[in-house]
Amino acid sequence: MRNNRRNIVSLLVNVIKNNVQDQPTIEELLAECVQSSKEQWFTPTDDERLSAAVIATTLITKSQTDKDRLMGSWDSLRQFSAVMQALQGGVPVDIEKITEDLNKIENPVPIMKIWDENK
Q1: Measured between alpha carbons, how far is 16 from 20 in angstroms, rounded to an integer?
Q2: What whole-number distance in Å separates Cα of residue 105 and Cα of residue 119?
Q3: Which of 44, 48, 53 is nearest to 20 (CA)?
Q4: Which range of residues forms the domain containing residue 26?
Q5: For residue 76, is pLDDT > 70?
Q6: Which residue has the higher pLDDT, 85 or 48?
Q7: Do residues 104 and 69 touch, judged by C-beta distance below 8 A?
Q8: HSE-up of 82 (CA within 13 Å, CB side)?
Q9: How many structural domains are present in the chain?
Q10: Phi and psi (nearest 5°) for 23?
């Protein structure tokens, strides 16, 4: 199942890269990639679509600063998801440490806002 998901994401990344041109801002580029991810003939899950859109955005943009902003935001989102799963499973979590890490990201990309507006 994991390889199947990886294959779908890889396929979708390639399709998005072929359909989307670089945009003036990383936010606009991510929005275009999200839009492109939903216009495909196969039916990837929302998780696969979002992963592919973020990966494609990092591959399309030429700005290292924008790549760093996006990847920092993506890592924070994944970390938040892991924390939520841990809390649901009854695993103790150091919320203060996690909050400190999240606040270190300079000018984060609003991934979920862009996703919600364009999915």
Answers
A1: 6
A2: 25
A3: 53
A4: 2-118
A5: yes
A6: 48
A7: no
A8: 10
A9: 1
A10: -120, 165
